[in-house]
Records
---
Amino acid sequence: MLGNTKRNGMAMVSVILAVLLLFTACSSNSNSNESGGSSGSESGQRVTLKIEVFDRGNSPAGSTITDNYLTRYVQENFGDPNNIDVEFVPVPRSEEVEKLNVLMASGSDVPDIVFTYDTNTFNRYASQGGLTDLAPLLEEHAPNLTAFLGEDILQYGLYEGTQYAVPAKRSQVGKYASFIRQDWLDKLGLDVPKTTEELYEVLKAFKEKDPGETGGQVIPLAMTVANAQYEPLIWSFIEPLTEEQSYTLTQTLGSNDYPTLLPGFKEALQFMNKLYNEGLMSRDFALDTDKKKLGEDVSSGKVGFFSEDDVNPFYENGMYATLQKNVPGATLAAVDVYLNPEGKYAKPMYNPNGMYIMVPKSSNRAVEAIKYLEWMATDDHLFHMQNGVEGENYTMVDDVPVAMENQTEEALNRLYNSGDMAIISNGKQLGSEELNLRARAMQFPKEYQDIVAIAQELANTDLIEPVVLSRPIEAQTKYGTTLQEKFKEMLVKTTMAKPDQFDNVYETMMKDYMASGGQAILDERTAVYQEMQSK
């Protein structure tokens, strides 16, 4: 940009003046935020608090994303008592990061509360000095919010030791479960496999005996290039790690930890190569980027075993319902089979935080912003925003709010944007993981609630916790997107290689991965780990 301004001196002067004005404004705002400022209720003046809200284009008739039951609930129960006008600023969900970047660059038009799910976006704003330090405001104004989140969640909002974000709290952290055709096992007189080796024998039996009578189209194990299908298998091969290995060899790309450099990763790929070359795995898995083919194959009765996000098969009119309609008598069982070297069914978990909630440095309403989040964590406001009105939206069953059947249109319209308004939580919070999971299961059709409960239990068993370093790794931000593609390319090519060519393909792909940023991440993580050890 500065190169273009050299065309004439006046343009350069304009740029310098603009920068000075921006610096002055930021300094003034920074001082206001650091001192806490004063809220509308304290000063006696009515102020405006601008809050980002995702717009999914799904507002029912009579509502808009900025004027609906929940926006009015916020205004009446938080805004008016505190002399605050609450203004919601729509951001298209599909353009979240792009639109937020535009707002943040605008300075004057940016909302007072913004958020993102993208870790790299949060790190970038923090590193550029664009965010408010929220620690003193949380200490002074948000005891309930701080207790609700706890230190384990709040740490995800730190950047180089400063609290630049309030992380939302996930109601549950389990990701994956595996499923097997129980009716096929029964027909062949086989027990449910409990180890990877036992699964392999079952898959061979499915292929050879075709208990589903698919006419040779049987897919013993369904696979895609989506994380939910391959991660449970791959992570089960990872060997026990030292602390140093965990911190230095893990590669965090996007929001997931990748095991590319961990001991056992090559053996996992070799097992997938074995399955593929023996015809025990989906032949066209490399093309199934959106899991659409997986859903079709499971629903048509071709698949014997697959891994998936724990509750995905059980939505109304979803994968399992379609399978049972197409194949009368078909039954799935939720199972753990991938046993790791330590005798655990190890599988990754979600980070316990959801979105990053931030207050831009340019905001004069940091106090009001934190008070709004504190209000949401106080009394029953979060519960109401997530569940609606008792007797109209839900009834209480064993301490769980259960959605009522045949709700009126008015009642249904209350909560259409609940997940996007109750921003301090990802998922319903009922005070304990047990109640959270029970409530989640009870959202599914009654005939599937038992298997959903089992799948959730398996998804939360033997979890591999994310690795959190003391500061962000710049190389991961720089190379993350490229390396995610390199990882999938390695996964596909090593799996599909001829067995005698596996080693050569693996070494070639790994060399390319390391040269494309993997080595830079390894070097930086090693340096950060050494810093952590020296403190």
---
Amino acid sequence: MSKTILQVLAWLLLATSVGLAQQKIDSVVKLDSLTKTKEDSLIQNKKAKADSVKKRMEVEIDSLKQVADSLSKASISSGNKEERKRLSAKSDSIKALADTLTKEADLTYLKASARPVVLDKDTLFYVYENLGPYSAEDRASSAEARLRELVARFNYNPDSLRVGKSQTTWNIVYGSKVLFSVLANEAKLQGLSQQQVAENYLKIIKPKIIVFRKKSVVRKWIAEIGWVILILVIVYVLYRAMNVFFKYALKKTYDAREKYFNGITIKNYEVLAPHRQLQLAFLVIKTIRLVTLLIVLYLTLPLIFSIFPATKGIASTLLSYILDPLRRAVTSIINYIPHLFEIIVIVIGTRYLLKAMHYFANEVAEGKLVINGFYADWAAPTYNIVRVIVYGFMFVLVFPHLPGSDSPIFKGVSVFFGVLFSLGSSSAISNIVAGLVITYMRPFQKHDRVKIGDVMGDVIEKSLLVTRIKTVKNEEITIPNSSILNGHTINFTSSKQYLIHSTITIGYDVPWRQVHALLIDAADNTKYILQNPPPFVLQTSLDDFYVSYEVNAYIGDTTKIQEAHSAIHQHIQDKFNEAGVEILSPHYRAVRDGGQQTNPAEYLPKDYQSPPIKVKRVD
């Protein structure tokens, strides 16, 4: 507690000393201001008197000029040659006197209206004449300000203060900076050359600057150190206040955790649990505290540097690091507003155009709007294609209005992603093209039973890249569209009647009419077989050991193809077993003596008997 009281007393003492020093400085400045006001008043009075004298001299000079003009006219009108010469000479003499008086009047006026250059209440020299748009008052004020800068300069070097010559003037310069220029009339008033006047002024200025620097350096250092300490105290108070404020904010946030932090859930997925949400809030508060502290410290440095003349340049540089980007950002935002409005108009126009197109696409898809030669299932993919084209056109229109779109970096990144997309998406693009071709070829539709290559099943999804099929064994198979386009596809659903078939082999000893009847009877007893058109049988080949019979039948439900095949095979087995006809599949070998006929019984003689088989054993 005592330590804190001592610190407070030290700060108060320091602030009091700084205040006293500043008060002394203010009194000196006030005295200087009063002195300058008094000098200005004297100068104005002197100038008013000079104006009065100049006007009287101008009246006298004008009267002399009028006399000279009268003599000149009299010399012209006189007939006597000697008289003309005498009058002309007298006229020229009066004109010369008038010119001399005019120059003297101008010099007298300049001398009377002179403006003193004052440093530390001491008049160094006078400024008599205007220079271009700058009056004598402006030139004197400028010279005083530059001399005060030299007095306050931290790294002042007397050797850098010298005399230099320009085209029409001699100048007093410090380094490369001109402090004051001596004009021709100002040198005439003093009866010296411009160089001599400039050198005299330099001899006056140099010791005065040194003396004034010695007087002001202690006072200035006290003021500067006082300001630095005051700034540091304020920063320290702000730092403590910030700590108290952010600790209070953290405590309040923790106390209100059950009220405000219930977690964030999106579609039954907990993105942030309550304790994670609280941790995130703490992180945000601490980050704001750190950023605020850094900003205060960063702004403190320019304030401290701006106090000392030697470091004012550093202060300006540090401030420019913040102000210049902010200024550029604000300027860029203001300049970008017209482009932003153009982008908004383009995006809104594109949005409503796509809405109108989506409406008509739905009308076509639902069959409300019929276009000859355009199928309803083409509506959705056609809309997607047109939407991509419209978005691409919108991007082309918007791209020039994006910030930095014309910069080399932006162009380089665009080219990089373009090349990357071209190299890495060749197969994807081929699948997309194949998907578009398949869409407009219409080889199958969603939910159709198809066979693509060796895969048979129902189409459950069609996209630009792939087609997904669910097989009869409940397997989901994904097939790239390019593979579908390059292969063959069988669509079982496109026809209302699908012909199934099955081949069996029967020996030559069974009459073909009996085989036909058995096969047709088996097909008629199968559940999924249509009676109209009726089943039929084809004899596809006469092989070495048997005849190949193919039974053909129509079914209406293509999703029952495999069930129909299984059922017809069952009935074929039953019918042939009931008739005692043997199906010669698979192959088997029979031993016969060669005398037995393989013809059916009705083709053999009535008294025909099969000869016995003789088997001889060979040792």
---
Amino acid sequence: MKSLKYWLLVLGILSCFGCSSSIHEDNRGCSFICDSIQYRIEFMSAGCVRILSYPEGDTLVTKRLVVDVEKPTFTDYKWEETEQAFVFCTHELLVSFDKSDEAFTFRETSTGKLLLKEKDRRKARNFKRSEVGGEQCLEVTQRFIPTDEEAIYGLGQYQNGIMNYRGKSVLLLQANMDIVNPFLISTNGYGILWDNYSSTKFEDTSEGYSFISEVGDASDYYFVYGKNMDEVVAGYRELTGDVPMFGKWVYGFWQSKERYKSFDELKAVVKEYRRRGIPLDNIVQDWEYWGDKPHWNSLTFNPVHFDNPRQVIDELHQQDNVHFMLSVWPGFGPETSVYHSLDSIGALFDEPTWAGYKVFDAYNPAARTIFWQYLKKGLYDMGVDAWWMDATEPSFRDGFTQLKQEERTKSAGKTYLGSFHRYLNTYSLEMLKDFYRRLRAESKQKRVFILTRSAFASQQHYGTAVWSGDVSASWENMHKQLIAGLNLSMSGIPYWTSDTGGFFVTERDAQYPDGLKSNDYKELYSRWFQFSAFTPIFRAHGTNVPREVWQFGEKGTSFYDNQVKYINLRYRLLPYIYSMSHQVTADHYTLLRGLAMDFTADTRTFDVDNAYMFGTSFLVRPVFHSQSEEKNVTVYLPEHEGRYWYDFWTGEAFNGGKEYVQANIPDVLPLYIKAGSILPLAEAKQYAMEYPDRELELRIYGGADASFLWYEDEGDSYRYEEGVCSQVPMEWKEEERTLIIGMRDGSYPGMPERVKMYVRLYLPDGTVLENKESVYTGEEMKIKF
């Protein structure tokens, strides 16, 4: 690391004039005052620093909900004060504050590379006194100047069709189809976590980008450095919380619709999947299992159509080998017991809702305890496996647009912590943080899985996945879901899904009034289904039309066969997907990836919004137009060190750095494998944990060295946290044409001692070489071609 004195000389800040104020250092960081603004610098790691600033004499009011206030800070840094600047330095990050400009600059310590700077000439921050929601507060503006070349992503999930936010703006505000995570990530090697929970506008113009928050008490942000975008995401997760593993069953197929009207109907659907031999892991019961609207979300099953829930769920587990997910809401009908218990402590908001229920104050710890007590007795103890926490924006009325959602939520008034204006975007976080902790305390045998419609920074730590809300069926909306999902994933929340085929089909702004009578809709559904098979959570759901595979035709028809084809492919890919999910937990990996994450050196990828990486190997190019509108599909294959890309279906190799055109074939999702990949495939099982993998097909895509870590465990339980798992390193040496399957590390109950390996080597000239059968016993073995 270059010395601090060296950087003071390079930056020319040893002896210049400017405002002067002494640094005060304590056990968490440093603070100083400049021009009546109190500044505080806290390093959270060598590459992450918190910059806090607010008017001198003010008191911080907002309870910080994202980063643990007791999280230890990083103390291995140096600082220096000169006449012109304050300079702070770790072995990774150099942070300087210009006293004259009153602005921070962030540089890479090893090279001096400029990462980001705040706006200069005393325009970096602005605090405007205001009164909002009956509280005295500040409207806070924070401005930055990025480099000209960088692209920026993240900030959550929005239905605006924007991939790269350079030159764009977005309102950071929860709604039915919008999810806030105020973490921005740049191709220039940094991220910004804006720690504010109120309505916030992000805007990038020719003068730079800014965050403008309606309610705050400070400008409070974390600057996260990384040598690449994966390191930046890792820094965000180290700051806000890692991602626990889901059960292996989560990565299988989910059957859902709005809604099954009885246990008999639901059970019949499961048995039909089993009869037809179509793989299935999860069946979902949507709302109204509780009965009528006055009993909304009673946290019990209505016995008229949902009798003997414990017995039925046991049957689903033991006879049909499926997991059962249930829809739960944060609001309660007036004739439910939980309503009266919450009302007795004043923990229900009076703001009217579209179904007559009242939303509870999830910021109130006593209310969360009441909610849990009723849920545990009425639902958890019945054997429910997974939790669909719907409408956690929370939903009052008119939640389909951000401004109406904001209006209705604010009119609900005060939360336990303060005004909804101040804590507008964090309802879901507070509700599910508590819920996850209670579920974890109940069982070490069953991994928590929560699906929800809203999220905020750090929510990835609490066993949650999100879906993109009640979107309508159209080709345009399908395309928007990819862009929305990529930006959410790149903001650090890795598990995302959408309603395959759109939630609405015949109403709102959906384009298919004839529903399943329309082959045009079936074509859209088929293409969306292919796309969904290559998202972290693969699920069918929606209203207006049923979503079971056979509703689209019978075996032998194109729409039926298309779905079965991609369900089977999904199950074949489970060793790959589950191993990638382990990397999400162990190494802060991101499964759903904008191309800029892996190919930052290829600037043509910065604005690609129609293709993405699914894990380390797959480039996926969903088809976003009907065959009648688009006879051919164009795909850009990025430049990379291995040079080539292989068509997954044909094995044909293509040079990177070029755009290619291929025919729009209805049952072919354009899939390309990066040269220098090892891809494990298993048999297509009827459910993910039907039996352990005793046979694997290993595909080697030549052109470069490759590696893969094959991870397996019991498929459920938290014993993986204690090392109850197996990890098998695989390495392909291109020059030697040798595959090395390394020694197995670890074991788990039921692990097969012997695994048959069928190895295929794909070469750029079109040659495919095969090693028919090798048996792996846990010891290192080499296969040479």
